[in-house]
Structures are given as C-alpha cells and as structure tokens.
Amino acid sequence: MASSPSQSPAEAYAASSRRGKYPQLTRFAAESSFEFDDFQIRGCEALEGGHGVLVCAPTGAGKTIVGEFAVHLALAEGRKCFYTTPIKALSNQKYGDLVARYGPDAVGLLTGDTSINGSAQVVVMTTEVLRNMLYAGSSTITDLGYVVMDEVHYLADRFRGAVWEEVILHLPEHVRVVGLSATVSNAEEFGEWLVEVRGDTAVVVDEHRPVPLWQHMLVGNRLLDLFAGDDVHAPGAELRINPTLLRRTEEIGRQYAPAGFRGQRGRRGGPSRMPRFRPPSRVEVAEQLDRAGLLPAIVFIFSRAGCDAAVGQCVRSGLRLNGPGEVDEIRRIIEERTSELPEGDLGVLGYWEWREALERGIAGHHAGLLPAFKETVEELFVRGLVKVVFATETLALGINMPARTVVLERLVKYNGEAHVDLTPGEYTQLTGRAGRRGIDVEGHAVVAWQPGVDPKQVAGLASTRTYPLRSSFRPGYNMAVNLVAQVGASEARELLEQSFAQFQADRSVVGLARRIERNKEALKGYAAAVTGEFDEVLEYVELRSKISAREKALSRQNTAVRRAGTAESLEKLRKGDVIAVPAGRRAGLAVVVDPGLDPIREPRPVVVTEDRWSGPLSVADFPAPVDVLGRIKLPKHIELRSPKTRRDIASTLRDAGISLPGRQKRRSGANEDGELAALRRALRAHPCHGLAEREANLRWVERYERLATETQQLERKVAATTHSLARAFDRILALLGERGYLGPESAGDGEDRVTEHGRRLTRLYSESDLLAAECIRHGVWRGLEPAELAAVVSTLVFEARRDTAGEPRLPGGAVPEAWQETAKLWVELTEDERRHRLDRTREPDAGFAWPVYRWARGESLEKVLTAAEANGQELSAGDFVRWSRQVIDLLDQIRDVLGKGDPVGAAAAEAVKALRRGVVAAGAA
C-alpha cells in the first residue's frame, strides 16, 4: 500500500488518508511481499471498519488475504479468531501457513482426528468442529471476535452444506463473519441474507483472474487454441471458436467411430470398417506438455483406477521429469512425511512404487490414497518437485495446489449414481487451478478431444458465468433436538425461518405471488367480458364438462367390456376354427392352427390367412368378440416354417366355401345411459343454450377456467414453499416425541422438553444419528466385545462405493445378532419416517465390519486388506484408514455420551484404543 512514484499529488494524498484511516491494514500490508489487489483492499477495509465481509473471487485470486487479515486483527485486538475450512487437508495446510507466520504458540488445530493447542488465540478447524462447539456451549468460544469461513460456497453441498448455515445462524451477534467464496452469480443475494441474519456485511465481488487462462483442445498430437484471436481476455471481448480447430475436429471426426461406439455389422455380417480413434497416451500427453513448457500440470481423470493406471504407464515407459538434485530433495521430504508409517506395512501400502514415481516427478491424487501419501504429493507439487499429477476431482476442493496447466481427459464424470456431463461450475472449478500467481504469466486449460466431443460444447463450458449458490439446508434429528434444548421449539422455528434455504424459497415466492395477482386481475377481465349472468354461463360450461367426462367414462367402460368379451371369445377358439380378421394388413379369413392359450396372459391364437401369412393375433386385432364362421380339417402336426405347409392350408381355407360376414355397426352404450341422457336434457333446457352470444361467452369462460386452474396451482406452490422448513421441523419433532426423545414437562409453556435419550442424541453427530441413539436406547450393543462393537458401529458410517455381489462377510460370535437387531431398528425407523414424510435414514452397510473387526483384534494391515480382497471388496489402504477414522469418531461420541462406567461406553473406549494404531494413527494427534 506504499505510494507509487507515478502517483499524482491528489492520489498520494488519498493513499495517505487511507493509511491513517486503516492503520492495521497498513501494518498488515507492509509485512506482505506483494501489493494487494483492489478487491483485497476493499475486503480488508470493510473488516477493519467493523463490518462482516463476503468475498467472492476466482480460484487463485488471493481471497484468503482477507481471511488472514481477520487473524491479524484478532491478534492485534487480543481476541480469538477461528479459521474454518471444509476439509481436513485444507485445515492442515492453513494451520501450517499460520504457524509459519505467527508461531506454534499462537495457532491451534482442531479436526475430527487431530487436536493441537485448541485453546490458542487462533484456531484452524473444520466447520463441523465449530458447529459441535456451538451446540455444546463450549467455553472455547469466549472472547471470539472473528470467524473465517473458507470455501463458504460449500453450503450448497447436499450432504454437508447445512453445517455452514447452522454456524452462521448460531454464532453470537458480536462475532464478525468473513466468508470466502468461489465466484457465484448470486453473490448479492447471499450477501443480502448475511445482512439479514448477521447484520452489517460488505459484499466484495471480483471476477478478474490475476493470471489469464488460455483454453485449448488437444486433437491427436496437436494443441489448438479453443478461441480465435489475441484479445479473448479483453473486457467484453466476443469469443469466437477457432476455425482451424473446427475444421480439424470435423475432418478427424468423419474418419473415426465415436467414443463408446461398439461397431455395426457390415453387409456380410462382419464388423464395421470404421476405425476407432486412439487418443495420445498419457505418457505422450506428459511429454508434449513438457516440450511445450506447460508443466507442472494436473491431469484430471475421473476414476481412481485410472489415476493409478496413468502413474504406472508413465513409470513403465521410463518417463523421467526430475533431475538428480530434485530426487535428493524428494527423498528427504518423503522420509520426513512418512516416518510414522510402520516399516512392516510399507510393502502392502505400495510405498516403493509410489516413491519411485515421485522421484520421476509423477504422482496420483485421489480419495483412496493414504493420507500421508496424499499430503506428501501436495507438498511436493507445491514445491515444484512433482511435475504431473493424475487426479480425481477431489483435488479441486479447496486444496492450494495450483499448476501451470490443467488437462481434462473427459467432460463426463460418475457422480455416484450415473455418468453425467460436467457443469460449467465444475469446469471452472477444475480449470481454475491453472496459473500460479507470482510464478506464471498465464495459465492453460486443455481438453483432450475425442470423436463426439464438440468444440462448441467446450466453448459453452469455458464461457458460461452463471453459477448460482443454492442452499442445501434442511433440519435433521441432531439439529432439531439441539435447537429445542437450547432455545425451545418456538424460537427454533423462527431460527429455521432465517436460513438461507428459506430466504431463497421466499424469494422464489415473490415472483409467483406477482403472477397470482396478475392472473386475478385477468380473471376479473374475463368475467366482465361475458354478456349476461357470468354464473349462469359458468354453470352451462360445467354441464358441458360433465357430459364430456361421462362420455369418456362410458367409452373407457365400453372399451374394457369389449376387450374382456374379445379375450373370452379368443379363449374358446380351437384348432381348425375359421374366423374373420376385421381390419389391417391381415384382414380377411384366417384359420386357427394353435389356440395360443396362456395361464397368465391374454390368448394369442396363431393363424394362417388366405394370403399364406402365419403369425399370432391378439385382442388388439379385434374390436369386438370373435365369431367362429366354420371349421376345416387340419393335419395333426403342422410345420409353419414350411412355405408348402402354409400354401396348402391357405388353399384349403379358400376352397372351404366360407365367406366373410357383413360389416357390423358398433353399438355405443352412450345412448342407453340414463345419467348421460339426463345431463343432455339439462343442457338443452339451460337458459344459455339458446343465446346468440353463447359460443363467444363460452370461449371467455373456458379461458377463465384455464387461468383459474393455473392460479390455484400457483397458490398451492406458494403454500408449500412458505414455512416449508418449519413444517419439516415439526414433522421431525413429532417423530422424536413418539420415540421418547422429546416429552412435555410441567412448565406450563406448552413447549417440548428434551428427555434423557434426547440429551444423548444432542451429542451424536452422524449421518445415522437417530439410529445410533436408538441402538443405545434399546441396548442392542450391550455385551459386545470392543472389536465386535467396532464391527457393528461401522455399519452406521460405512458406505460401499458401488453395489457388491452377495452378502458381506460378518465376524462370528455376537456380531450377527447385534447386526440383525440394528437392521431391525432401521426398518422400524424408516417406516416411521415414511409415515411422517421425512427423508429416510441410510440403510446400514456391513461391508466394513470384517476388516475393522480384524484390525481391532490386532491383525496386520496386509492380512486385513488381503482378506478384504479375497471377500470381493474394493478397499484401498487410504479407504481403510478413512473409514477406520470415521468409526473411531462415532465410537468416541458413544464413549462420551455413555461414559466409561457404562459397559457399552467402556467397550467403545477400548475399541478406539485398539483401532488407533499403525497407519490409522499415523499423522493423527
């Protein structure tokens, strides 16, 4: 913020005034090695001016400067600052940054499995940890002045997003919130909500990328620009797709079959000669990027197996991107990062292969990696010692790992349920990693072309700028019982009405309400346009509608009766019966050669017609019951595939002297229906029937009715949207009341009270929180040994990545019975949830019970993973550690809820000790 030599006197005076007005920002900026951008200055000034702040800027723009300024202010004012992040890896990274700046005494770290200096003045934590603190009324919140919510756009996450809103709503009023978000198109709307629930909040939006991003497509071995011209980054520039790229992709597209094409059969039955397109190998892509000076690069492959395979291909090819000096530095960092790993487990962890790849400058990065491996890859990549990372999209979630180039192998990813196209928001988030501020002059995004990929589609993804933030907030059991315990049900409803979800829902209602008002004005106009009495014309229209409805009902009824009669007549047909096919291509005489009777379906008699066609007929071929016109004698065995047999039967049929019956008029039951006749008489007798303006009036009334129906639908939609969260909350309270977690007490205020079981539920933070509480309440886990308890508790946290064949293997002893009782409680719970119209609790999954049981019994990692593979389970070392830590987390909660004096609480404590060893304990304090 120092004055520039090129400043005018007026500008220098303004800068001096600003420095006097914001002394803390001046000190903070003086410690920085670079000059702050305008949006960073505006965010920091708002914060020092006593406002909360929401900063929305692209990935890599440097919005964390505002978050770090909040830390600086807290330390200067002698207050606390909590820096929250959505994932543990980002928490660890930010903790390292702040310790390097302020020292280990001033900074703490709290994540699900790590606790370092938790009472420090500045604490980095995952957002869930802060939510749990707020519900527990933790004393740590005393003197809290600032909360930084990094990646606050996570509140759109459908699984965890509610936590961000819970924190924002529950923080004490005096705490200033600093929200750091990726660029979203409705930042102003989000800011307005923050003003409503947190008070004065400044919204700072910056869409400018500090490092320009160039978009390319890799077509074969040619790297072509996506957009034409050198001014694509100029404000308001018109983006035109590169014509050379369009020509090249069209030429190659005509030569090759599309991706996923299985080939058609040729004229002689052989496969189609259209060749398959073979994209450049991953090794060739890495070498080409290296030659073009575009490393380091992140290559996004939306598959764990694909990432591992890519690393293996590069190593086997002999690709080496590092020099001898870099190898020595890599080995030192690897030793430092993996020193806690037991030596006996290194083989099963694939340590030596992983290390060799790193020494060559190549790595994979995905959720299945061991945490220590993943963190090592992240550090080496940031230091420039890993040149190519093959990663799944999880790498794009907040971790500070910028690259010069980002490559997308495909524009389709698996979302857990189906293969879906990338959205513009996902494309921007992934390619946003390209371009390192202060290192690269420009970043590069590369999409690998293959047949079926249209450059226009890529251009649409690259140029779209509308990514609205949508709340995923909804009340759950733990949230509901905590709210009732803290503020009571009435105040809790008011709090839910303040959520961003309800704010957005109410915003959507505003437009609907305007439409309803416009519709009501139009309805008045339609009514005024009718000559005569409007109610009489409306009554006449209703009579006509009743007549039409009755005619349709009779038609359906007659159709059903006719179909039943026809089916019954077809069932009576016998071999040799001659019938008439009334219409269609097969119209004429036909002889039954097989009655085609079926015990379940309607009969489908096989016939031969006069023109030698043979095949089955159905009820649909006959508008009325079938009459037998005569009989002819047929051979006992008939081979219908023989043309001669069909010819002989057709000839016999023609010579039988049976003629087609005359055309019969189909009778309608409408003329005989008393109700319909009465309605028609009433219509003819109505005063409006003889009016000259009748048809004009009817048209106005029909318009009126259509618009009235639309208006009613809109009103129902508004009613369903308004107070929707409060109604869902009330349904949750009703279920909790039925199950004994809430109960009225004699306080005379009519409020629900949290029971002893409810107080336990307040401290269970799990996707299956109520099911865990039910298992504790019903004592289904009593008598289990520690390893057995770990096995059964794992069923509440584990979720298989995909369906596996057969039942998962369970340990013996008491586990099967406890698992069955747990599953039985789940069935009862979901029945209640269905009755109360609530989201269903996820079904327990026993897929991790056997591995976690064996680990808790002290078996080696190699034995556990080998046994899992033998049972047909896909379980990497990283997955094993992640699921084990989640089991430990829930066991810790059970221990805290019940206490070590309770048998289940004591078993939970012992199970945690047994599980927290080796690779599971490595890196967790």
What topology emerges from the helices and strands here?
Elements (H helix, E strand, L loop, with lengths): L8 H13 L1 H8 L7 H11 L3 E5 L7 H14 L2 E6 L2 H15 L4 E4 L4 E2 L5 E5 H10 L7 E7 L11 H9 L5 E6 L5 H12 L2 E5 L7 E7 L2 E4 L17 H13 L26 H10 L5 E4 L3 H13 L7 H14 L13 H9 L2 E4 L5 H12 L5 E4 L13 E4 L3 E3 L4 E3 L2 H8 L11 E6 L6 H9 L13 H21 L2 H30 L4 H38 L5 E5 L6 E7 L11 E4 L4 E3 L13 E2 L11 H12 L19 H12 L8 H28 L2 H15 L3 E3 L7 E3 L1 H6 L7 H10 L7 H9 L20 H21 L13 H8 L4 H10 L6 H22 L4 H13 L2 H4 L4
Parallel strand pairs: 1-7, 1-8, 2-5, 2-6, 3-5, 6-7, 9-17, 11-13, 11-14, 12-13, 14-17
Antiparallel strand pairs: 3-4, 9-10, 15-16, 18-19, 18-22, 19-20, 20-21, 23-24
Characteristic key phrases:
925 residues, single chain, alpha/beta, eight-stranded mixed beta sheet, seven-stranded mixed beta sheet
